[in-house]
Amino acid sequence: MPQGYLLFHLNLAFSSIKTELRPQVIEKCYWPLLRLAEKRTLPVGIELTGWTLTQIAALDPQWVVKFAALLKAGRCELIGSGWTQMIGPLAAHEANRWNQRLGLQAYRELLDATPAIVLVNEMAFSTGMVDVYAEAGYQGLVMDRDNVRLALGLAGAPLSATPTHALGCGDAAQASTLPVLWGDSILFQSLQRVVHGDKPMAEYLAYVARRAERDGTVLPIYCNDAEIFDFRPGRFTTEAVLTGESEWRKLAQLCDRLEADLGLQWLSPSAALATVQASLPRQARVLSSVAHPIPVKKQAKYNINRWAVTGRDDLALNSDCHRLCTALQAAGNTTPEDWRTLCELWASDLRTHITDPRWAEAQARRQALLQRLGLSDAPTGTAPITWQPLASFAAPAGVQLDSDDSGILLNLRTAHTALTLNQRRGLTLQSLGFATNDWRPVVGTLAQGHFDSIELGADFYSGGVLLESPVNRARLTDLEWVQPEAALHDGDLMLRARLPFAGGVLEKRLAISLQTASVRLGYHFEAIERPLGSLRVGVLTLLHEHLVEPLTLHCHQGGGEEHFTLNQLSTHAAAASTLVSSTAAFGATDGRLRLTDARGPVLTLQWDPTRCAAAPMLTHQDASPTPFTRLKFSLAELDDTTRPGGTLRDFELTLTPG
């Protein structure tokens, strides 16, 4: 006999729902859900944030009373979320901890209940979040199965090959481990289409029957939004039209048909998780990979960059959230209200189809908290620097600074760093090596002809900038002749070049430390608008001939340090479609990526997310005679949430030998 579960996600902060329509959402969506649980033997899971629960309590307290009674009677199950729907892999570790702490407090105070299972917010998963959930006391998590299987190379494997448990960070023997209740994007989208009248019920029932026969496990019949039945959020012009027939009634009839025609037995989410765990051998694994470091729900257009560098102004909003979190931690602030405000500013819905009034309200709260914590509207710039033409600049003692015979390559060497720059290509890095790495150049340029395949028949520089806008049909780079200027400032030898770019000026700076092994790349934008497209800076090409396999990238994604071996095709910056410019990125929530090879540390990349919370992306593929690997940092991407306006933040990237 097949078994299945239903889990509904309740979110009064849904981006495109106007504030004044929230009572209507409760009436048309949330009350019918409770009646479904009360009148039928459907032990549904109901997941909502502490913020949403608090809003419902203020608008319709009887709903909370009824929900609490149904929970006590075992007619439904509370599924955890947090105080807000934060994208954990993009938020600071301490903010994630507070988000869970505040959410659990709201459940206890308003429902006298503590959830055993947590749903991964927006199904945006990282290994570090497993530790956050385990620390909060959760005994299991709900995550989308399809994209985890894709990340682990299991897309064509039987479902029995899917891990049963998610490993956290650290050594496998000591890592946190949580059992996983899997959701399924195709199953929940199929149910939505039947209820909306876009798919015949007979066709749906036949599909579920095939899935039950093939999968042989508990079916995640539905695991998604409640606000799309008998209500339309207004997010897309292509939303199904309301016909007047009750969609909740149609959903109940569909559930009856699943019982009558297929013999489906309904389980609560906790019972479903226990059943799956009892029927399958334990398989505990890290649920991400270097190609998919942050698996997300549904199709490729729903990737982590949707909340990182798109929307109305994700980059600036995320950067300020990091500033606020850092300030709260530095002050030892344990005031729950301040952390609630920060969690609300870090909520996912501000980064998608948020309405104009709600966006304006969020900006006012953001500025108010910044000012109350003594932070200015934007990070302050650096002290003034006196520049002079490179031709008249005298290098300090112990520093070699000269050009090659062609006047194209500029060679610079200190006691710690060897650097060659290409003046013909915008001061890109020809090669960079450090004394502590035996002067091995691990970052630089691979000239056309290095690779055997015509697919890679181009020059691949380091330190460059690339802007692509299909909306404006523009592709711009910084690969132009420059006349560098130089200066000595604060213990650094500095070089800069200014180039016309995208209607303004791009100023590139390099700061080479004279005391340590460190090079800082700076990208400063003057009168350049945030593009309706992608803008990637700090593009770095690895020189594999000086590295020893395997290579591993290390970073934090909302929790502890995660490790990604470069062992599979990774194309984070590849477009998902003509309207979605990328498919993946690393969270790197502490502003750091570390690269190691078989010999040990190779390179550390560090930036300040409180100034610019850029999204690091990886390109890696096998090639001949060496693999092809590039890292780049996105300041803007294009998808259906992107809106004109917003701001570009200057970006500085520091390279050290690790």
UniProtKB/TrEMBL annotation:
- Any keyword Metal-binding? no
Domain (Glycoside hydrolase family 57 N-terminal): give its ranges.
Answer: 23-146
Q: Which UniProt keywords apply?
A: Carbohydrate metabolism
Q: Which residues form a coiled coil?
A: none
**Entries under InterPro entries matching the protein:** GH57_Enzymes, Glyco_hydro/deAcase_b/a-brl, Glyco_hydro_57_N
Under the heading Pfam families, the entry gives: Glyco_hydro_57
* PANTHER family linked: ALPHA-AMYLASE-RELATED (PTHR36306:SF1), ALPHA-AMYLASE-RELATED-RELATED (PTHR36306)
The family annotation for this protein states: Belongs to the glycosyl hydrolase 57 family.
The protein in question is named Glycoside hydrolase family 57 N-terminal domain-containing protein
Biological source species: Pelomonas parva
